[in-house]
Amino acid sequence: MIIGVLKETQKGDNRVAITPKIAQQLIEKGFEVRVQEDAGANSSYKNSDYSKAGASIRTKDDLIKNADILIKINPFENKELEKLKKGQIIIAQLFHKSHPHDMKIIAERGATAFSMDAMPRISRAQDMDVLSSQNNLAGYKAVIKGAYEMTKIFPLMMTAAGTISPARVLVYGVGVAGLQAIATAKRLGAIVEATDIRTETKEQVESLGGKFIMVDNNGEESEGGYAKVASEDYARRQKEAVDKSLFKADLVITTAMVPGRRSPLLITEDQVKQMQNGAVIIDLAAAQGGNCELSVMNKAVIKHGVKIIGTTIAPESVSTNASDLYAKNTFNYLVHLTEGDHFKWDLEDQITDETLIVYNGKIRQNGKIA
Ligand code: NAD
């Protein structure tokens, strides 16, 4: 089977879905790998690296015309989808719930689509979970960006000219990104506090040396590993418990999300007014509406003396590492889906069932043809 690796077309995304190392591993598994010219150029992988790994360099048209499986990171563009052939398989993060029109085009073309972002949160899917591998890098990068924007340093420093006290970092949301943000801020020497609606994260925060701010969630626990939408009552209790830390913080990193919903509003303008002058907020939930009322996606705004940066800190800013991890996730997924060089189509398997969104021209929902 021929795998075609497409160059990302989303502005600013420097990643590539398959790296030369993984191309070689796929070839060893019996696949033929063809890569679009310069697909890896922005992640430090040259065409010659792919050639050395045994892949061939092709044009986009050639790939779309001839590959059995087309792989990308971001959703396919309409003009790419419209060229799909009957029986062709595409693998990407398709975000099918928010892109129903794309699914319709794929189905009309008689193609098949697997969506990496629909990966179930079960232990055996962990090594195929691109949301985790990429969010982990986002958590790290959020702290580095925060450090760059701050007018203070992180660690305690005793100098002849006086003592500098450590920076105070507050993290909202202790999922994959939040945990890495805590670990990174701790390593840089900050005092770190964190909170999450899922109280089971307390132990994880403490194991990284952070202080957990407990908010009574009154049984508003998670569903399938994800948080549920918090009630107004919870939001009020959260403010009461966290405000003291928020108003003392030098850097606030917000990562709170609820899948398929607007991200919860955790910091209002009124709260920003009470924060320290010069504090920085990095809002990683900005693409889903933001955790801070004043966040603007892809912008840094200064309001009431606080710099608020709305971003996804898309891991594309660390594209080499992000591509390496994404490619390994994809390799593990392909190995899971196939036997030799053919697909198993095991619809009894939860991973296949939940990630197979369009099957031979039919849109699936909850394991059934819709
Ligand atoms: P996420 O990106 O959906 O959300 C980030 C965090 O925000 C979560 O911890 C969530 O509880 C929190 N949050 C939501 N609403 C909040 C609110 N109102 N106030 C405070 N916090 C709020 O989460 P994620 O990073 O995808 O991880 C969620 C969980 O799933 C984690 O425990 C993670 O380890 C687990 N996980 C498991 C697998 C697997 O087993 N294959 C894969 C990935 C993640």
Automatic annotation (TrEMBL):
Record domain Alanine dehydrogenase/pyridine nucleotide transhydrogenase NAD(H)-binding: where: 147-310
Entry EC no(s): 7.1.1.1
InterPro entries xrefs: AlaDH/PNT_N, AlaDH/PNT_NAD(H)-bd, NAD(P)-bd_dom_sf
Domain Alanine dehydrogenase/pyridine nucleotide transhydrogenase N-terminal: 4-138
SUPFAM superfamilies reported in the protein's UniProt record: Formate/glycerate dehydrogenase catalytic domain-like (SSF52283), NAD(P)-binding Rossmann-fold domains (SSF51735)
One function term, GO molecular function aspect: oxidoreductase activity
Catalytic reactions of this protein: NAD(+) + NADPH + H(+)(in) = NADH + NADP(+) + H(+)(out)
NCBIfam families, per the entry: PRK09424.1 (NF006942)
Biological function: The transhydrogenation between NADH and NADP is coupled to respiration and ATP hydrolysis and functions as a proton pump across the membrane.
Protein name: proton-translocating NAD(P)(+) transhydrogenase
Provenance organism: Gaetbulibacter aquiaggeris
